[in-house]
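Internal ticket #5521
Category: modeling
Description: The requester needs a full-assembly model to guide mutagenesis choices. All entity lines are attached below as received. Residue total reported by intake: 977.
Assigned to: D.W.
Attached entities:
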Amino acid sequence: MKTAVLVFPGSNCDHDAYHALKHVIGVDAGFVWHKQSSLEGFDAVVIPGGFTYGDYLRTGAMAKLSPVMAAVRRFAEGGGPVIGICNGFQILLESGLLPGAMIVNESLRFVCDYVHLKAETGRTPFTAGIAPGTILKIPVAHYQGNYYADDGTLDALEKKGQVVFRYCAPSGNVTPEANPNGSARNIAGICNEEGNVLGMMPHPERCAEAQLGSADGRRLFDAMVAWLKEKGK
Amino acid sequence: MKEKPVTLELAKEHGLTAEEFDRVRAILGRDPNFTELGIFSVMWSEHCSYKSSRIHLKKFPTRGPRVLQGPGENAGVVDIGDGLAVSFKMESHNHPSFIEPYQGAATGVGGILRDVFTMGARPIASLDSLRFGRPDHPRTRYLVTGVVAGIAGYGNCIGVPTVGGEVYFDECYDGNILVNAFTLGVVKTEAIWRGYASGVGNPVIYVGSKTGRDGIHGATMASGEFDEKSEEKRPTVQVGDPFTEKLLLEACLELMRTDAIVGIQDMGAAGLTSSSFEMASRAGTGFTMDLDLVPQREEGMIPYELMLSESQERMLLVAKRGREDEVRAIFEKWDLDASVIGEVTGDGVARIRWRGKTVAEIPVAPVTDQAPVYDRPAARPEGQDALQQGFDPASLPAPSDLADTWLRLMSCPEMADKKWVFRQYDHMIRTNTLVLPGSDAAVLRVKGTRKGIALSVDCNSRYCFLDPYVGGMIAVIESARNVACSGAEPIGLTDCLNFGNPEKPEIMWQFRSAIEGMAKACEAIGVPVVSGNVSFYNETMGKGIHPTPTVAMVGLLEDAGTRLVQWFGAPGDAVFLAGADRLGIDLGGSLYLKEIHGKVAGTPPPVDLAHEKRLQGFLGAAAAEGALSSAHDLAEGGFACALAECCITGPEGPIGAKVVNPFPDAVRPDFAMFSESQGAVLLSCPPGKRGALLDLAGRFRITIKELGKVGGEHIDIEGVATVRAADLQKGWREGFAKALGLEG
């Protein structure tokens, strides 16, 4: 079992994702440079956070053009698990692998803080075994994490069970106060119709060890490993 | 830009004195041309030459068993054992940040990051010390918003966490804010790089961003006072590109893993000029440089502009001859320019060519060796005695409601929660931050080891204003105590010495006194100064700031698992006060005196250096033994504010405490609550560890007194004042945004 951590110019959570996978979870991991056009030999893909190409254009708009993204598309179409975190989520949106877009936080300020998430579905490889309604404490760190989609798209996402995480209060209530960035319907993470591609703004790789303030992020990677094992990987 | 004929007048416009201009002529044996004048003017600017500060900086202890690199390089390096070292430095970006807060602060962060990764270190954490004018000054909100966004914009993008710092407000900074940026990196001891241009025939290679006209004479701007025309200097502020710096960082670290280079230096202040001259000077060599080969993003730049540009995200390196292609390949991978622009020569002369002609020919060594050094006159300001004797505690009206006074102090912008600021900084990236911003010191783990690094930046400039010698000592001692409160041993410091115009004797007196106080404290606690920066001319319209020698202290925890935080842990823990040997009497320079009574006067609390050293040992031993749940030092706002902080600053919501008045003999209860002292810490101790704690206090000869217990909804100093912890927390949380009129 081997996981790929993509590296674009400006990726900066690549080392953190690698550390969480390799040294905390104990699964083999390797960096994949964005100019590579193959994901041969990898069983899961992590698109880490960062500021690819400085976010000088729309977030993710340049990174989606890198050769590796064609490989990610093929990998996803083959049912392989893909998780895009923060800037990785933004790249997935720009690539059209997930619907919607990101705009600047409602506060117009960068926000780095712990938030609470309500898990809504166990259908993704990263949430399999996490019961809907489970509350996770995971940090966010972004300037453009205000998820936007038109009402039709949002309705469809909800109807098809593609909303994976919502921002919530520690109690689990989904409230406007618990929303750190103004995201539509408090959405923090979504998946594709098939469920194998997950995009989320919060950073599970930052809270995979209790000494960092929370180990809840580890549950997503543990779920991924269990899911892959079940597939005989 | 057009070249101008060189005259004494022009030299003076460049900030050179008549004597300095004569010295230039003597070194060259002729009149300098325009380009050469530019080179000398920046190399001999206060900012680059340290001409007014050099003789005083020598007073700092800079050596120690852990010191691998002291001052004089891009950053200092201190051994932390197991083949690893930390490299760190702090630098000011005051003037640019006042003119253009976002870019000024952003490029301050960019510059200090380059200084650290130039040494071969991977940056893992930054801190910032920020000082603004009074909160209701018309420009303050704009400056705070811009500076914080600039630090966030740069640090977050490059992916180095900003894990702490300080934010102060005082009217002395109305016309001259301070932005001091610190970065620390981790490096293997056998892989430290330095700025040496050695090896005759080796290629000099320019890497990174292209050169433009931005920042020309930034170093000279930083070497003069501000006046009403300072706004016009906006074009001398550089523009930052953190994305390019991220690429540069990765490319440089990748290159350093090869052995293709011999030396490397950041192009910071005075750009191509200072990097090339300093590298050659250290190695005792010369160099040739062909300016046509410098990557340029503007047309028609003349040699003067190319040599003086402070365009960001550039480095100069010297590679081994024949290894140029390896260097190019790595930079090509990261989409960056790498251009061989010259070579190292053995004759000690810098020869700079442009369009086929020699445009500058300067012997390297005299530019640095014969740079002017001044022992400027120093004199104690006339009003200093009056300032120190300027108030009589007995004449202060006693507050009618002590609980209300307590709340006012906790919610004033100096004390209030700075979450509005640090929430904008990514303080968790790289997943090393074990103690997040908001405690006495931030603590980071060092991956692959059990070690932790504790960081704190501190300076009480009111104390320094009232007595720069004692204030300088306190800046060192208090930052060391902050680090010790996290359980760490202080192992090295870097400083940013922010002062007014050194040509004024009273400013020079402040500077000299502060340095002597700092040096004395460093020696007493055995902590070396390994890097630093001097920022003079922090004056606008002739009015200087308070002397502000900011200290960033680095501490080492052998086992990061023993780290402490400042907030109380659990109900039932016992509360102790240790080291409070002077009881409730020192009000000079206190926050209480300023915020409640509107006075900055008196003398700062005295310092007992031997006690401080023992206190640090005691805290380290108590942390290692697990005898403490928390430790927090008494600082601004005295005992009552320290106690409040222990109760309300933790991430898990407020917690109460019930304690006796530790200073029952104080003349007045407000003095007991808010007088300030050095060397005192508030501790909480888990049940069952009381005996161990008292044993340790005895062993280190630290006075200790049990005051009460953690728990309940109220913070109660029995018989003196009581507040609901939640009320105090609310005021503390809202105070910052409220005072500045910011959205929460």
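Resolution: model delivered.
Comment from assignee: Chain A touches chain B through 33 residues (CB under 8 Å).
Ticket closed.
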